[in-house]
Amino acid sequence: MRRDSIFYKLFQQSPTLLFKLLTTAPTNADAYRFDSVAVKEPKFEIDGVFLPPESEGAGVVYFCEVQFQKDEQLYERVFAESLLYFYRTRARYSDWQTVIIYPSRSTEQSDIYPYRTLLEGSQVHRVYLDELGNIRQLPLWVALMILTTLEDEQAPEEARYLLARTREEAPLASSRAIIEMITTIMVYKFEKLSRIEVESMLGITLKETRVYREIKEEATVNLIIRLLTKRFGEIPGEMRASISGLPLPVLEDLSEAILDFTSLTDLQSWLETRIN
User: Fold this and answer.
1) CB 212 within 8 A of CB 220
2) CB contact set of 258 (below 8 Å; sequence gap of 6+)
3) DSSP class of 150
4) Each residue's pLDDT expressed in tens, for the chain with a length of 276 residues
5) Pair 69, 76: CB distance under 8 Å
6) What phi-psi label fits residue 60: left (phi over 0), alpha (psi between -120 and 50 degrees) or beta?
7) Domain map of the chain by residue range?
8) What pairs with residue 96 in β-bridges?
9) Strand extents, DSSP E, 20-112
10) Within 10 Å of residue 37's Cβ, how many Cβ atoms?
11) Which stretches within the chain are classed as H helix?
């Protein structure tokens, strides 16, 4: 299950979600935006960064790491990336904070002694999802985080509960986004199930939802790329980009047309007739 992408979608939909996990949130939490940043020399890509509004002068930048697999050098990387970015942008920010989200304490890096001062201070926040409480008692957006951690036997019942609760509690504007996220989580969690099976599990219809179309398109693109690579070797980046941009009906046509291709030239000709 691709939890990183799910969490980043959660943060994009609701940037204030990060601050619901902290004891003390900035007074302007609603004005923060979620983004990714790059640091050159050496090159670092930091996916989870919460940036304060530029209109209010120097503010606090929040770095976020979602870690569901044990990484014995996680803190080395996280602190190196965060502090280097803060160093490069010192004039822009007055302070920094780092939030690390784990499913449980057992996932945390074993040797934390070199970072004891940082970990025991007020700038680094470790969140263990299994210690936040009962999923049914948590705010909806936080509950979605917990849903990603549940065992397959428990997840369907809690997903149905959250769907019902969303319809009752959430304003229309946010309820659609929450329902989309619940659907996304469950489709990723049970990716081997058919659409009908997932629909039956959740009691909703997925066929016409945006998330179902996006996931179906992503899965079809990945399958086509794998088939083409197996037949013709590495596929050029430009061709990959063209395939990724095709709508689902055209992708389904391509998956059948592959059987007739004898070379990448045939693929290129097929793409040109569909794109131009």
Assistant:
1) no
2) 224, 227, 228, 231, 267
3) S
4) 567 778 888 888 888 999 999 988 999 999 999 988 776 656 667 778 999 998 878 899 999 999 999 999 999 999 999 999 999 999 999 999 999 999 999 999 999 999 999 999 999 999 999 999 999 999 999 999 999 999 999 999 999 999 999 988 877 667 878 888 888 888 888 877 776 787 788 887 765 456 666 767 777 888 888 888 888 888 888 888 889 888 878 888 888 888 888 889 989 999 888 766
5) no
6) beta
7) 1-131, 140-208, 210-275
8) 61
9) 33-39, 44-51, 59-66, 93-102
10) 17
11) 3-13, 17-20, 74-88, 116-119, 140-147, 155-169, 172-189, 195-202, 210-232, 237-244, 248-257, 264-275
Using the Cα atoms of residue 134, residue 135, residue 141 and residue 147 in order, give the sign of their dihedral: positive
Name residue, tokens 């980046």. 237
| Whether 142 contacts 20, CB under 8 Å | yes
Tokens of 112: 């934390």
Structure tokens at 118: 């940082």
Q: Which CATH number fits domain 1-131: 3.30.530, 2.60.40, 3.40.1350, 3.40.5?
A: 3.40.1350
Q: At residue 13, what is the residue type?
A: Q
